[in-house]
Structures are given as C-alpha cells and as structure tokens.
Amino acid sequence: MSVQLSSFAKSLTVETAFSVLAVAKGLKAKGKDVVELEIGDSPFDSTASAKSTGVEAIQQNQSHYCPSPGLPVFREAAAKFVRDEFAIPAQAENVVVGPGAKVFEQFFCEAFLNPGDGVLVFSPYFPTYVPNILRRGARPVFASLKQANEFRPLISDIENFLKTDPSPRAVFLNSPHNPTGGVMTREDNEAIANLLRGKDIAIFSDEPYCHMAWKGRHESILAQPGMMDQSVAAYTFSKSYSMSGWRLGFAVAGTAIAESISKMINTTLSCTPPLVQLAGKAALERDAKERDEVMQKFRKKVELLTAGLNKIEGIKTLDPAGTFYVFPNVASICNRLGITSHGLALYLLEGADDQFGVACLGGECFGEAGGGFLRFSCAEPDDRLEQALAFLPKAFARTDRVTAYLETHPQFRLKAPYAEA
Ligand SMILES: Cc1ncc(COP(=O)(O)O)c(C=O)c1O
C-alpha cells in the first residue's frame, strides 16, 4: 500500500489569492494585458531604513541563531511602538517575533484550543483562520458580517456564541478587516472586552492593517483594561512597511501566553532571522513618515476605486473605512448573469476579453457570507485602476461571452440568487 497523507493534509484549504495570482501570471506570460487586483501585496518598495539596515546587518554578519522570542532590542522597540501608537500596555516580555503575522494564527490555536472547542469566526474571514482551527481538531463557528452594519462584528453574535455553543473557547477578530475593509470602533472593542473579560475565552486580534484605518485611528482590543492577559494580537511589516518578502511580524500577548508561544517558536522555527528583525526595528523607529506617506497613497487608491465602482450600474460599495481592499456588492449583476461572484471574478480575468483582463477574487473565497461580493486590492498604479474600471461595465454587457464562459465552467453557474441589498 502506498503512503497515505493524513486526513488533515488531504482536506487542507489554502488562500485562493495565490491560485488566481498563478492564473494571472500564466495569462500575462502568454501576452494578455492583466490588471492585477487579486493579491494583497504592497506595490511600493520597503521603507528606506529597513533596506539600509538590512544590508548593514548582513555586512556585520548578523547571520546566526538568536533567542526564539526575538532579539531583546526588537522586543523593546515593538513594545514601545504598540504603547505609543495604540495605547497597549506592553513591555518587551509581551512581544514575540515571527516571520509575518500569519504564523501566529497557528500558535494561537496551539496555545488555546483542544479538540472539539468552538471558535467564533466572523465571515467573510481571512482564509487561513479555518485550517489553523481545524489543525487542532477544533470547530469554527461562523457569524456573518453585514454590509448594512459596515462589516463590523455584532456583540449579539458573540453573546449568542457564548450562550449556545457547547464548548466556546475563542473568538477571532480582525480590524481593519480583510476582505471587507470594515473597521471596529473603540466602542465595539469596549463592548466585546466587557463581555469577555475574565471568562475562559481567548481572543485572536489580527491587526495587519493597523495603519490603514481611514476614519479616525486604529483601535486594538488589547488597549482595553485586562485584555492583554486573554488575547494575542498579531502585527506585520508586510503592509505598513511594504516588507512582505522579508517575512517579519510580531505578536503581543500576556506574559504567560508569550512564553508559551516562544516554546512553539523554539520547536518549529527556532527563531526569526536577526538581520530581518534589525531591519524591522529600524523601520519602526525611523520610517514612520515614509510609512504614513505611503498609507495616504493607498487611501487615495481605495477612494479612486470606490468612487469608480459606485458609478457602475448594479454595484454598491461602502465609503472606504480601512485596508487597501474594496469589497463591492455585485449581487444584482451575478443574479442577472446567473454566475457566482468568484465565477464573475474569473470571467473578468479569463473570459470577458481575449487581450485584456482584470484579476480579482469572489467574496466566497473568504467564506460563504462573502458570496455576491468581489474583492479588489489596490496594488496597481492609478492609470491601471482607471483602465480596470472602464473595462468592467463592458465586460458585464458581453452576455454572449458570459454564456460561453459558463458553458466551459459550469461550476460557476449560480444555483440560487444572492440576497440583494
Ligand atoms: C487579515 C490578514 N492576516 C494575516 C495576514 C498575513 O500577513 P503576513 O504577511 O504578515 O503573514 C494577512 C495578509 O494578507 C491578512 O490580510
């Protein structure tokens, strides 16, 4: 008998953005002009001090192992940063370093979940939350975020989870939110903290877009009294400092939780490269101005895309609140064309035109509640965003090409119409 993969390995689902990226690159290699709005990566260069300090660190042979939770100087700098920026009462011992924010989803689940435990996840959601919950044999429990509530979590959904779940154990929060762009207010955080404080419920607060709150400032639940002791907040350099390929992030948590996560780092990654940590420390300490200028560029792109989408018949997009994603409601267009929203996304890329395409994602790539929406990232220059906007209405009008696309891709036929706002 040949070697068998585990049932977990066989059932593992992945981020669709990377699969669509591969299709887009393949079409481009064959000569198609594709505007790439599928992947959540910054089109800008890593900030200046990060680059120069990284090069210096290599020259100075910072190329060996370092402590699993991170270089003490990095942990100090990150703690000061979250204290100053988000009023989180963190010290160095509350910070653990990792290669990006994503890995802390796994470590959080390993720290808190036992098989059968219930974990509340607001849908749509970042796609890797669920595999990381399932990795522990725990149970994702979904509550929908609604466009009518600006994609902010409802306290009543958390109350309901606590009341009805047989073994409620954790809640995943993400603000500013990928894919919807929703942003939680201080009042939202206060109400959730008041509900969960002191209970045996752990919170994963995913905050990669903490510098992309377009109305007011970013608020973390860890700034609420006592919440650090039952929470893990995850931060990354991928978005704010355009350092996605360096792989650098960190988590902030109560001391006992941070110590537990350090053991997980010790037994998997050993440590995060010290030269990368030194580059990140320099970015935190010296690149705030450059970062904020880049954030304003993102904001303008989001505004441009939102305004353009709202001029297209059948599309309804909220005013930008946060992130570099735009999440328009396209339910009426999908219903009229008889195509799912991810089918519509792939039609725009592959089927609508032979020479030109737009790569984006259907909202259902982020869970069932995302059906009837598209997610665009703003990762291209403004003139390319304008080209994409001009293309969409033409593509929606080519009903003969939609029919032909559905004939070759019947899995995208819409079985039941989406609810329209
Ligand atoms: C909500 C969310 N969490 C986590 C991540 C992972 O980021 P990193 O590059 O730091 O691993 C992303 C990246 O797109 C994200 O959107």
In CATH, what is the class of the largest domain? Alpha Beta
CATH architecture of the largest domain: 3-Layer(aba) Sandwich
Beta-strand content estimate = 5-15%
Within the CATH hierarchy, at the fold level, what is the topology of the largest domain?
Aspartate Aminotransferase, domain 2
Low-confidence stretches: none
The N- to C-terminal Cα distance equals 54 Å
Shape: globular
- The computed structural class is alpha/beta
Identify every distinct bound molecule in the structure, by name, code or SMILES. pyridoxal-5'-phosphate
Spatial order of strands in the largest sheet: 2-8-7-6-5-3-4
SS field, number of helical segments: 15
Mean pLDDT: 96
Q: Report the helical percentage.
A: 40-55%
Order of helices and strands: HHEHHEHEHEHEHEEEHHHEHHEEEHH
Q: How many domains make up the coordinates? A: 2
Determine the CATH superfamily of the largest domain.
Type I PLP-dependent aspartate aminotransferase-like (Major domain)
- Say what oligomer this is: single chain
Written overview of the protein:
The chain is α/β, with parallel strands linked by helices. It is 42% helix and 13% strand. It is built from 15 helices and twelve strands. The strands form three sheets. A seven-stranded mixed sheet has the order 2-8-7-6-5-3-4, sandwiched between helices. Strands 9-12-11 form a three-stranded antiparallel sheet. Strand 3, helix 6 (129-134) and strand 4 (139-144) form a beta-alpha-beta unit. The longest helix is centred in the C-terminal third of the chain and has 23 residues, at 288-310. Pyridoxal-5'-phosphate binds at residues 40, 100-102, 126, 174, 178, 206, 208, 236, 238, 244, 249.
